[in-house]
Structure formats: C-alpha cells, structure tokens
Write a structure and sequence with these properties.
heterodimer, A: 251 residues, mainly alpha, Ferritin, 63% helix, 0% strand, B: 178 residues, alpha/beta, GMP Synthetase, Chain A, domain 3, 2 domains, three-stranded mixed beta sheet, 7 strands, 30% helix, elongated
Chain lengths: 251, 178
Amino acid sequence: MHEDPLFLYTLRLADTALINGHRLSEWCGHAPVLEEELALANLALDLIGEARALYAYAGEVEGKGRDEDALAYLRDVASYRNILMVERPNGDFGQTIMRQFLLSAFMHPFWEAMSGSRDSTLSAVAAKAVKETAYHLRHCGEWTMRLGDGTPESHRRMEEALEEEWPYTGELFETDRVEHDLIASGVAVDPASLRDRFDTTLERVLAEATLARPPAGWMQTGGRQGRHSEHLGHVLAELQYLQRAYPGATW
Amino acid sequence: MSRGKNDIVEDDGASDRRARALKLRALAALASVHDPEIPVLTIADLGVLRDVRIEGEKVEAVITPTYSGCPAMNMIAIEADLALEKAGFSERKITTVLSPAWTTDWMSDEGRAKLLRHGIAPPPHSSSRAGLFGKEALLCPRCGSAEVERISEFGSTACKALWRCKACREPFDHFKCI
C-alpha cells in the first residue's frame, strides 16, 4: 500500500488518540467515585477532540474527500494504525491509571516537541494538546503514587498493572521508514529524543509510588502497521455501530 | 462621465466608515453570545472570540476552542451565526482556528470578576502558573479563605477543576489555568 507519509503519520496519532479516548469513555457509569468518573470522561473528551482535529487534517492531506467521520467510522481493524497499548481492555481502575500515566509520560514531551513542527496544522494541534496532556500526566501520576504507595492490595495491583502494560511502551519509541523523512524535515518528532524526559518522569513517579521499573525486555509491536490484538475489533464494533447500521446518520 | 479622484477617495472613506460601523454592529451582536456551559461568560469575556472581519457586506467571526474536545464549540458557532443573522448580516461565516492555542490569559478582567461572582474561582494569571506537580494558590470564591484543597483535577466541564474550602466547607469550581 502506498500511502502518503504525512497522511499515515497523522492517522497513527489520530487513531491512538481516538481509541485511547474511547477506552477511557467506557468508564462512564463505572468509575469508583464520581470525581474520577468526571476526570476520566474529561481525559476522554480531550483525546477525542485531538483525534477530530487530526482526522480532519489527515483527510485533507489524503485529498480523497474523506472527512473525520469517514476516517473514524468507516475503516476496519486492519486500517487502524493506533499503538496496541490503547486498545487493551481497561482492567481495574489502577490499570487504567497506570496505562494512562505511561502514555502521558510520553505524550507530554511528544506534544511539546511537536508544537515546534514545521507543519503548521500539526503544531497547532500539538500546542493545544500539550496543555491538556500536562493535566493528564499530573492526574494519573498522582494516582499512581497514591495507589502504589497505598495499601498492600493497591500496591500489588499497581505492580501487576505496570508489569502488564510495560511491554506495550516499546511501540511509543518506534520509528519506521514512513517517518524518517518527516523527522529529517522537522515535520515529525524523533521519539528517541524524548527518551530522557520519559525516563525522568517514570523514575520520579515510580519512586514515590514505591514501584520498581521493569527491566528492559521484549516489547509488543504491530499496531502502527495495522496488526492488532483481538480487542480492537470489539472496540470498533461499539464505536462504529451507529454508522454501520445507519450509514450517513446525523443528528 | 468618468469618476474623479475625489469620488474614489470619498468612496473609500465611506466604505471605511461603513466597514467600521458593520464591525461594531457585529461585535455588539456577538457580545450577546454566551458560553452554554458557563452562561455568565460571553465568548468575548472568555477570549474564545478571536476576530471579526468585514469584507464588503460579508462578516466573518473567528473563534477558537478552549479545550480540543470542548463540546460547546458547535453550539457557540450556531449561536454566533444566529446573533449575526439577527443583527442583519445576510452573508456570514464562522471560522474555527486552533492556533494560537487558547490560554486563560486571554480571559478578560471582567470575565474573571463575573466568574468570581458566580462562585467559580477564576484562573490565576500566567505569572503565578504552577509547575507540572506544583501547588496552585487559590482563594475560596465564597468566603475568600486561602485554606482550600483540590478534590479533583477535573470538574463538571473540561475547563474546570473541583476544589473545596476548608474554612466554609463549601465545594467550588476552579477555572483551570492553561
């Protein structure tokens, strides 16, 4: 498949934001306390807002008349390019928090760097997203500390969550051929340049949380190339239901 | 009969005055558009209204979202369009821009005062902006006490956080600083 690198790059960011936002929105009506219900819904809203702006731009770059809705609702699993971490089931509250903490620890410096992109649309989306992600990181970081350094039960669960989510952090730092030229021309961000910031945040928060960083090891991969776990199909079945059942429906 | 230079100058002057008058009329109309989620604030108070452009008889209002996913944006665009229509503009355009990114620094002093009267702690100015894991200094909008604590980073809308006053025991919303 020959896709425009900028289209694919933008699509990867959009898909990751949408699926992450959708998973967080699943907490509506299920969170342990009302304040966290609101918090997770707010995070979801930020992410879906970012996804909309990114999809609209991806559609424009592609130039085939697909708008944000067509890209979100009318593609199947193999066309999705999100990282695998965001399609994983939520697990318990601690696991959702751990996943969002790890993701935000990467996304915060990512959007910061992206706000200096030579692509004016990506830099505009990034300049908004970086402010929002700062709140996501702070919120999930504080919960990681509170639960990690909490009761023996909450500590155990956070330890397990970290172990389970860890192999999915590798994809955050991947680059492939599609992105090399974009990085060289200052449109895309080289994730390797964010490694130090990511490590520093982790070191600080995990120390407070009395959790040990897992050793570097084998990492999951494939989402960015369209090779997904069985979970994404279930996410899309729900997310896309209305447009699939009633094509073109609006309200 | 050919038009003399003076006629053109005269015309230009007239159209400038006309454009100014139209712009003032558009601004007055848009001043009636409120944020549907915080109805005490207008979109001008919030700094969501970025520009009003007049071209001939056409008017364009430029707005920017507070947060990327702000669900009020569609409503604001519809209401702005409606306000301009009521003000007599037949050719209208509402444009949404993302850049430069909205910041609470754009909120007017009047907007801050309105929030406070409404029981919402306004955002601090950027000079007092807290670091990522830093502390924020706030006063209770009801009793003015500095003995306040954060209940949650997120509140009833994307732009607000939930706080509580330890002096009067009342919970309150805080418009987050971004």
